[in-house]
Amino acid sequence: MAKFELKLPKMGESVAEATITNWLKNVGDTIAMDEAVLEIATDKVDSEVPSEVSGVLVEQLFGKDDVVKVGQTIAIIETEGRSVEAPKPAEVAAPSVAEVAKTLEVVKENVAPADFSGSDKFFSPLVKNIAKEEGVSVAELESISGSGKDGRVTKEDILNFVKNRTSQPVVTQTVAPVAQPITPPVQSTTTSAVPVSVNGGDEIVEMDRMRKLISGYMVASVQTSAHVQSFIEVDVTNIVKWRDKVKGAFEKREGEKLTFTPIMMEAVAKALKDFPGMNISVDGDYIIKKKNINLGMAAALPNGNLIVPVIKNADQLNLVGMAKAVNDLGNRAKAGKLKPDDTQGGTYTVTNVGTFGSVFGTPIINQPQVGILALGAIRKVPAVIETPEGDFIGIRQKMFLSHSYDHRVVDGALGGSFVKRVAEYLEAFDVNREY
What we know:
This protein has 435 residues and is of the alpha+beta class.
């Protein structure tokens, strides 16, 4: 029977591995070509892995939460599509009897396989298979003090337990392992203490995976970089008037909405060319001067979390190209359709806190970059207007730019000059320009 090896596909030049978050198909299920088989996640983006063939899923070589390298085989699909018996454990997940015998030098009598479905603890498929082969009961398995992450029982833990267990008789008869499909393991619920509501009315919700990652990134960034901020107020009246005048024709001709974001991104890209010292990253004691200007833009995900897709070579785009890139990444972020490579390679980040009504903010640097710019809300404010005939008070459209930068490698002169240059480009916007 022909069998097809489903491999973890390449997801971008800078993506080398991914974590399995959920199996959408179980062993024995029929799969159509291009149908999603499992869900995976990189450090920032969740994706689905589709099947390249039609057939029946006969083996899952990895379980939930396993980390898989690009190019590794993750499942076996029988391409003739007829029913098959339950497969033997995957090579990566279960040792052969010979391997176990060599390690232990003795093999126990065959006993009825234990049912671990009632246990609250997480045990990997490998540990379960060894336990069943060696007649280790659920109670015995739960009593083992695990040395793995979050107290998980590892292969070495259970092998040592079996080796040191002397109460069972030793025999020379070998026993074939019980064949069974590898099912996605259940996440342990005992790895950390769950907080208790004091008044009984509080709702306690565990962070989702993305929020845990964001939390880790934010704490690591604050602990790594010496954050300093510079603020500047910008008069964007000309930009507001110009956009109001052309946005209808722009959408009709280009098929894209014209927001303020691509206009701001255009100014930031120009300023980075003027101040390449902001377009760098830090690696230990070394500064890496980036050749390309790749702008990250914070965007909202469907679950409310934020992600930072990247506009590659932003300085080479005209306003139309920038608008298309901004809209494409923003729309795919909202739909959960970003690819792993869409979030890689950023050299500087822009976040629009004005979307939520904030006047300004103090954003945290996206490591290993050295700067991030927050765009505040555009507001009508009274302002002093200077003219050859004298000064007068008028209504202007203004906003704040908040620049956070890494004071380890960016001093105040560079950090302040950069954000001032962005402001100058915005205030000098040509109301007669063609898009």
